[in-house]
Amino acid sequence: MDSMDSGPVLPFSYSNQHMSKAMQKCTSLHKFLYFSSLYSILPEMVPENGTKAFTELQAKFTVPLTPGSGRSAGYQAGMQLLALAVTLLFAIVGGALVGKSKVNNK
Fold first, then answer.
1. 9-30 per-residue burial string, b: 16 or more CB within 10 A, e: under 16
2. How far apart are CA 71 and CA 69, in angstroms?
3. Phi, psi values for residue 67, rounded to 5°
4. Against a cut of 0.90, is the pTM above it?
């Protein structure tokens, strides 16, 4: 059998079973860190108080959660796009006014 067919040579001697367990732990840690920071950055995405989803989240995370409005990811994306559009509108109008006043003053 050719050495290229056997897969990568690792500098340590873990079997595929050990590697898959390690990857599962890393993946679950990544999900935990992502979702806990998601709710601290976007608190409106926390489910409403008294819902089953909110109770499950409280049980899963050690960080205290304040009930939110339960926004979906799509609704949150829409709000962020709206905020981006408003920001760009202010930047364009402000830049046009400042640029026009500088042109008129020359």
1. eeeeeeeeeeeeeeeeeeeeee
2. 6
3. -60, 140
4. no
**What's the CA gap between 51 and 30, in Å, rounded?**
25
Type of residue numbered 35: F
Output the CA angle 45-47-51, nearest 5 degrees. 170
7: left (phi over 0), alpha (psi -120 to 50) or beta: left
Give the model confidence (pLDDT) of 24-43 as tens digits.
556 565 555 666 678 888 88
Copy the structure tokens of residue 68. Answer: 């939110």
- Structure tokens, 10: 């690792």
% of the chain beyond a pLDDT of 90: 25
pLDDT in tens, 59-78: 887 777 888 899 998 999 99
CB 14 within 8 A of CB 23: no
* Residue in this structure with the two tokens 């760009």, named with its chain if needed: 88
